[in-house]
Amino acid sequence: MKKHLLAVVLGTSSFISAGAMAADVSFPHLETTGVGEVIAQPDMAVFSVEVTETRPTAKEAKQAVDKAVTAFNERLKKAGVERSDIESANIRLNPQYHYPKDQKPELTGYRASRHVTVTVKKLENLNAYLDGALGDGINGINNIQLKVSNEKEFAEQARLAAIKDAQAKAKSLAAGFGEKIDGVWKISYQPSMIRPVMMRAMAMDSGANTEASYQDSQITIRDRVEVVFRLEE
């Protein structure tokens, strides 16, 4: 008896049309979505801090933030942080005004700000760097990203897990319908991005205990693959 076209679609989170994957396919086939997941412990971080100062003149405001940034950069370099892992943004300088009712605005001073982004290759040093920033006059943390240094290795593990998942689903489904797999006809794949763990921004004097939270954090690396398997005719 001639077999009819068999199409099975898995993966409710997919926005890719399974029918589009196998468009104009005239032979019996089976479609699956393989999903892989790997849990990793972060071992590095990227954080961004900010110093903002308001002074009567633009020159004084600039000098104040430059002084804090220079001191912080020097502290990091003495601690062994490579210069290439420190990015100091250009200064932002804005006049500040007071707006009396029914009167012209009055210039009250200038606000200057600079950002410093630091890549921390040893996570255990993160808290010490943040504490050092406070002592150098840095007055805000914009964000902290916890990451893994060997992203490619974990991404490969997640990819292989997704491939095995697609194969296992296909084998199980084919057997359940009394069919046999006869090779792979099409593979659709788009690499998944590894998203770092984001810690919320905070004021430097907030007293928040970030150390325990980032040391206990985990990063989930996920990947997926869409596969069309040919069935024996």
TrEMBL record:
The keyword Signal applies. Keywords: Signal. Residues 1-22 form the signal peptide. GO terms for biological process: DNA damage response. It comes from the Bacteria. Coiled coil: none annotated. PANTHER family: PERIPLASMIC IMMUNOGENIC PROTEIN (PTHR34387:SF1), SLR1258 PROTEIN (PTHR34387). This is Oxidative stress defense protein. It comes from Photobacterium profundum (strain SS9).
